[in-house]
Each structure stands twice: as C-alpha cells, then as structure tokens.
Design a protein that fits this description.
The structure is a single chain. This protein has 358 residues and is an alpha/beta fold. 36% of the residues lie in helices and 18% in strands. Strands 3-2-1-4-5-6-7 form a 7-stranded parallel beta sheet, sandwiched between helices. Strands 10-9-8-11-12-13 form a 6-stranded parallel beta sheet, sandwiched between helices. Strand 6, helix 5 and strand 7 form a beta-alpha-beta unit. The radius of gyration is 21 Å and the shape is globular. The two termini are 19 Å apart.
Length: 358
C-alpha cells in the first residue's frame, strides 16, 4: 500500500507557484505504488488548488493562517489531519502551531522545508531558523541551510522536468531588437526598480532595447511611475502574472533577476533551461545556481552600474548570449533536473519510514 504524504502550503494564489511546482513535480515523479501526494493550502482557496488537482494531487484548502489566534481554524486543520492516515507531513508553511498540531494529530514523520532566509513581514534581513519539532529539515539551498542553528539540514535543490540531450533549437526573432525579461512578484524584494534604472542607462546606446516584466503585486503602480520618470514608457511592458513562463521565454534574449534576496530562484532556473543567459544578483542561493562568467553574470544587489555593465556585454555580443545560454541549459540538465530532485526526496522519505519501522 502506498504511503500517504501530506504537503502543507500557505497561499493558493499564483505568487506561491514555486512551492506548488515542487509538489507537482514530486507527484509526477514518485512511484504511486510507494508514495501518494496530498496537498493542503492553509491560507484559503485559490487557483493553485486546481493546478495540483489537474496534476493528480489530492489538493484542498482551509482558511487558517493566524495560528494560535484562530482556534476554530486550528480545529479544522486538526480534523483534516485525522481524516487520512499520513505517513509523512511535509511542511512548506507554518510555524510552531502547525508543527505541533501535525505531530499531535498524526503519527507521521514531520519534514520542514525551508524556502528562503527571510520572513518578508519582518523585513529583508536574513533570520535564523530552528529544527525544533521536525524529524528532518530540508533547505532549497545551502545559503538557506546555513540559517538553521540547532539541527542537521539537508539541501535538496528544486528541479525541472528537462529532457536529456542538447539544447533545443530556440527560434529567436530575426531582428535587431533585444528583449530583456524578468519574472516575479512585484514587491520590493524582487528589486525590479534597479532593472528599470539599468535599462534607462543603456537606452541611448541601444535604442532598440525592450524590457518585459512578468508578474503582479503591490509595487506595480510605483514601478510604472518609475518607468515614465526615466523615459522608458514605450520600451517597457508589464505583462501581468504569467501562469506558464515558458510561453514568454522564447521571445526574450536575456533574463534578469535583480532580487535583494532569494532562497533559490526557480524563475532563473526556468530561464536557464530555456537557453537564456542570466544576469542576477549575488544573494542567497543564487550563486549555487548560476556560475558567474559561464552561464551568466552575478552582480551585487542594488548596483545599477554593475547590472547595466553586464547587460551591455550581453546586448552587444550575440555569440556570448548563445554560449552562456547553452552553458546554463547544460547546468540545469546536469544538476537541477526533476529526476534528481525526486530521487533526493525518495531517499529522505525512505530513511524516515525506515526509522519508523525499526
């Protein structure tokens, strides 16, 4: 009989796509005779519930995100845990209340999965994490793992379902226009304003330069004002939230990730898998993904001059764009595949359940 594994996530809105994609990839890669994936969103219903259901995951949602301050929500969570005999509860979201209830309501092993080094409501300074209450702690990068202060943590990188072999032929436009793309939530953390300023610095030398910004969030109005202020209204397009970033990557020439902090950037992983060179800030787990000078460039965060300088090199050198894009694809294929990620989680789950039966 298959072991039942429950993944606990926060919001089911599109901004939590990264976590949901990990769950979906696991569901598609695991042997259903051994492990069956369930998902429960604790911050209300949203489109990601349907996304996971369509992938074959038994997904549902509760409205419980205030922890101990919402006892009725806690009771609903408790009841949902008692409906199924779970072997493993895999926490992507939640603090001590979620951890304690999962432990109290089930006999499952508890996995805590850390996706970043910051807690956004508290600011952009990395914080420390505890392994308290978990049977295993997983981090999306070594940079995140280093913030766990009191227990062993294993790094399991996100992976993409990418076919083996060489980079597929990319049909770039036969035009002098260069399109720089970025994707993510439109919040301070993502540093989009620094990309806008870097593009403004390059405009006079590269009048055919265009920028496309895929994403939504509270800073969109502020960013649109910044675009007008630096005179780029005709050169910058806001695409809104894109459910499938692969639909826009083929028309981009360079991918930029100007974030102020990242645990492990799946959007950059997508771009590399599509054969795009990447310019990203050297923050968090980004240097573990991107090899500086090989598959792209790393620059300091908030450094407009450095970002513009690296973009200048790529815009003016199509062969460099091709070679870096090819190197990025090979790196994702060889080190960040869905198969590698799934095998790592299978080893972890197997170890935990072997302990259970000793």
């Amino acid at each position: 009989m298959a072991h039942q594994v429950l993944h606990i996530l926060g919001t089911a809105q599109p901004e939590s796509t990264g976590m949901a994609r990990i769950v979906r990839t696991l569901s598609e890669g695991l042997d259903p005779k051994r492990y069956r994936i369930h998902a429960l969103f604790l911050a209300g219903a949203g489109p990601l519930v349907n996304v996971l259901q369509q992938a074959g995951v038994q997904a549902s949602a509760l409205d419980w995100w205030r922890g101990a301050r919402d006892p009725m929500g806690a009771w609903r969570f408790w009841r949902s845990l008692r409906r199924q005999k779970f072997a493993i509860v895999h926490l992507h979201f939640g603090g001590r209340s979620v951890n304690w209830l999962a432990r109290a309501a089930t006999q499952a092993k508890i996995v805590r999965h850390l996706h970043g080094r910051i807690l956004e409501p508290r600011g952009l300074t990395p914080v420390n994490f505890s392994a308290w209450g978990a049977d295993a702690v997983v981090a999306v990068s070594q940079a995140v793992a280093d913030r766990v202060v009191d227990g062993p943590t294993r790094v399991i990188y996100a992976g993409l379902p990418i076919p083996s072999g060489n980079l597929p032929a990319l049909h770039r436009r036969a035009t002098s226009e260069i399109v720089i793309g970025t994707a993510g939530r439109l919040v301070e953390l993502k540093g989009i304003e620094y990309l806008v300023r870097a593009a403004a610095a390059l405009r006079s030398e590269f009048p055919a330069l265009r920028v496309e910004i895929a994403g939504s969030g509270p800073q969109r109005g502020k960013l649109e004002e910044a675009v007008v202020r630096v005179g780029l209204k005709e050169q910058v397009r806001f695409l809104g939230w894109i459910d499938d970033i692969s639909s826009v990557l083929p028309r981009w020439d360079v991918f930029v990730m100007p974030s102020l902090e990242e645990g492990f950037p799946i959007a950059a992983l997508d771009a590399m898998a599509a054969g795009l060179p990447v310019v990203a800030t050297s923050v968090g787990g980004v240097p573990e993904l991107l090899e500086d000078g090989k598959s792209g460039w790393l620059v300091p965060s908030r450094d407009v001059e450095a970002l513009a300088s690296r973009l200048h090199l790529l815009i003016g050198n199509p062969e460099l764009r091709r070679s870096m894009g090819t190197a990025g694809y090979a790196r994702v294929r060889d080190h960040f595949s869905a198969k590698q990620m799934t095998e790592s989680f299978v080893r972890l789950y197997d170890e935990l359940l072997d302990e259970t039966h000793e």
